[in-house]
């Protein structure tokens, strides 16, 4: 049994499809696209749940709903996230409310979900126990990103990944994948950034959702790896 949050976007849908192809019953979470979530769940013979992660009550209710329906959870993919685009030097354009909104969804929600599912993950009969995969960002590894608050939430989630891996082993493994530019509906109009990535990265291209899904699956499938943040940027960081 696997739960993928933010599963109606490019990366989330790719991860959900990959886990379903590997034999998992997949719970598909969405916030905005209820119809898209229902459609994807039907495609995968899975189950759709809705929750707005800006409200902790919704997160707890989602966990209760999933456990009441399935009785267990083996894999949690914390993919849901939000962003805001602000030039890094424009400090006046970022408010405390912006910080709180990004922290609530990008950092506190994954923590709350992992905590809510902890006993179920600990009880997973899979080799290596339960598996948590956090989808973070290249922006959490290098000083870049759509905005400073966004990058800071992803950097924090990378560190929380390592801290939880140390605290929860051996019964729960916690890892992260930190993608760079991924071809999704969100990035469809980012033409300049796409050109820069293709010109700079040794692999000469941007990533696809399938590339990210491959790493998510690798982190789930390997029963020994934990505490790793795998940078998926086609070698961009080498330049």
Automatic annotation (TrEMBL):
Family annotation (PROSITE patterns): ADH_SHORT
Gene3D superfamilies hit by this protein: NAD(P)-binding Rossmann-like Domain (3.40.50.720)
GO terms of molecular function: oxidoreductase activity
Pfam families cross-referenced by the UniProt entry: adh_short_C2 (PF13561)
Top-level taxon of the source organism: Bacteria
Keywords, alphabetical: Oxidoreductase
Entry similarity comment: Belongs to the short-chain dehydrogenases/reductases (SDR) family.
This protein's name: 3-oxoacyl-ACP reductase
Source organism: Nocardiopsis ansamitocini
